[in-house]
Amino acid sequence: MNLAGREGSPAVLGEFPVDFGRFVREAAGSGGLVVQPRMGFGTPTEMRAGLAATKRAPARTVGTVTLDSFTRVGELEAVEHALRHGIGLNGYPIVTYPDEVTRSVLQGIRGADFPVQVRHGSATPMDIFASLVRLRLNATEGGPVSYCLPYGRTPLADSVRNWEHCSRRYARLRDLGVEPHVETFGGCMLGQLCPPSQLIAISLLEALFFHHHGVRSLSLSYAQQTSHEQDREAVLALRRLCAEFLPTDNWHIVVYAYMGVFPVTEHGAYGLLGDAARLAVETGAARLIVKTVAESRRIPTVADNVAALSHADTVARGVRPLPEAGDPAAAGDSRTYEEARSLVEAVLNLGDDIGRALLDAFRTGCLDIPYCVHPDNAQRSRSFIDADGRLEWADTGRMPLGHRVRSRRARTVTAAGLLTDLSYVRTRYDRERAAHAVPADAERIAVTPEREPRRHGAPNSPDRAGTA
Amino acid sequence: MSSPHTSPARPAEREPGHDTARARGLVVVSGVASDAHTWNLVFLQLLIEELGYEVVNLGPCVPDEMLVEECRLLEPDLVVISSVNGHGHQDGLRLIGRLRACESLVATPVAIGGKLAISDDNAERIARELAAAGYDAVFPDGAAGVAEFRNFVGVLPRPSLTAGSRSGA
Ligand code: B12
Fold this sequence. Notes:
The structure holds two protein chains of two kinds. Chain A is of the alpha/beta class. Chain A has 18 helices and ten strands. Chain A has a single domain, classed as Alpha-Beta Barrel (TIM Barrel), CATH 3.20.20.240. Chain A is 42% helix and 9% strand. In chain A, the strands form three sheets. In chain A, strands 1-8-7-6-5-4 form a six-stranded parallel sheet. Chain A has a two-stranded parallel ribbon with strand order 2-3. Chain A starts with a helix and ends in a 23-residue tail after the last helix. By secondary structure, chain B is α/β, with parallel strands linked by helices. Chain B has helices at residues 39-50, 64-74, 88-100, 123-132, 143-154, 159-162; strands at 26-30, 54-57, 78-83, 110-114, 137-140. In chain B, helix 3 links the parallel strand 3 (78-83) and strand 4. The longest helix of chain B is centred in the middle third of the chain and has 13 residues, at 88-100. The complex binds cobalamin. Cobalamin (B12) sits between chains A (38, 40, 66, 69, 72-73, 90-91, 121, 150-151, 188, 190-192, 259-262, 294-296, 298-299, 422) and B (34-40, 43-44, 80, 82, 84-86, 111, 113-115, 118, 139, 141, 145-146, 149).
């Protein structure tokens, strides 16, 4: 590709960004996992530096702009206050900065070889989508359920309405020649202790919701849980359900490194991240969202993120897909698949309008997220980690799983008991001192911008930032 | 314990009078306006219930006005604020001003804890600022936090004891 032309017309590049979904599928199809940080900084300078470093990282990467949580809840005055007083924000306030500022953050970094996704966590995302559309930021993440129930007190009905509106608006980017991409966050509900079958059911239902409202380029998330075996089963089940239910081929699976209480040690954090990379490759997922050694404590630095991307890439290169990954249906019906399918069918049977069906499902307890305190969640279900480390149902409440799962007698939940379950993964990985748990290639962990990136698609782009 | 309170209550769901006769008092647990995290709130609710108090858990993303209003109505013996998303410092400073501006809440014990900023660099200064602004106790994230919090709760005045509580806990 002739880069001179691109550098000469950067505005045009911004106007016609690549389809994020297609980019990832092509990159992964050529034999490698795409890795991505969950990165967001409060100042344009840091945000730009973070994107540039992600692009340069020795791995096949895509970029992320994660928004701060004042912006997520629409507290724009608090953003102003923080910016005026130099108080650190936990993400990039895209609605507050003038569009020129954000354009200058992306300028020359975002490109055909480096798409950028915006991640937030808002059930009232109208202003955010307005910014995305104006800036032609054509990849984002969310869901009417997954950006509502774990994220505050917006009523689910409002969230469904808001997300319908925003999905349609986003879909109209196609009229301008831009393909919008949305990733479901449903595979991460509450970060932890939500059994895999329900995660993949919600992820799939949200993808159907987006498709229903016009989005044609999709990805479906699944977050690593407590058991590697069970996680493999879950990703394969999700892929099979996608093939069965999604009316498009433009989808891929994104695995998230563990989204719950993270190990505090370096070997623990890298061990867990490495297992997430392994899971992604084994099961035929195309993309991995990484977590860093700083996860248990504070917002990670750019260097923390680059180290994580590099480690995940190195581990991924040493792993081969499972035989079942070629044809997830051939593996037969796992229990995770059966449970998830029961949930999906039960919700789809509630009506043709998927938003309404989701509302009814939560109202009647057909879907019920363990430990989710949102007023629109039935709060009858409970989960637990069994002796083999699998995340199972202790109580299925009114979900249509009675015939598949025998609810165990709910144990009394104590503060200490809850903390033990929440810390199960942390404890295990912090203890393990297996050889594979140290950074796979310590030397590559150092930020080495001068090193030639191994990158798919555009092997020798001069910076890819257009300045080289 | 086997009361229904051992499973976390819905936010803002309260069962008036339930167990209050036996409880040591009433505690409001709350997140702050921008913070969506809830595991911290569920954990604190259980912990404080196990210390013998009745808990009203307001849940995450509680707007300042709502928290002030709930506290005025409930007249709790203690308010526990938790934030882990890194904005707790800013949200918390604004919030305590509003609570203390309310006449009936001038002397109510209010504690705050969690991961209160996006880095550990200024943890001490931030804790001092929050205390100076009106919090009775600040518990920055860390192993010691929860143990210190138990001690703090242990020495709170116990209004319902003097009202003749027969707490069997
Ligand atoms: C699960 C999780 C989520 C889930 C939350 C789901 C839910 N409804 O709760 C999801 C995925 C939705 C999420 C979202 C976000 N998260 Co989050 N999340 C976590 C994670 C992985 C675990 C938190 C947890 O469940 N802990 C279990 C509970 C029981 O413990 P705890 O919260 O740590 O609290 C302990 C102590 O702090 C203490 N404590 C807490 N409060 C109080 C109060 C008092 C008075 C006392 C005495 C003690 C006390 O008691 C607890 C037990 O020891 C942490 C990282 C980690 N710890 O591994 C990040 C983390 C808290 N999240 C973080 C951030 C920034 C976010 C986001 C803004 C997204 C982003 N930019 O990454 C959004 C928040 C949006 C918003 N509006 O707030 C950051 C905060 C950074 C900081 N403070 O510097 C963390 C640390 C990750 C990181 N390193 O970046 N998150």
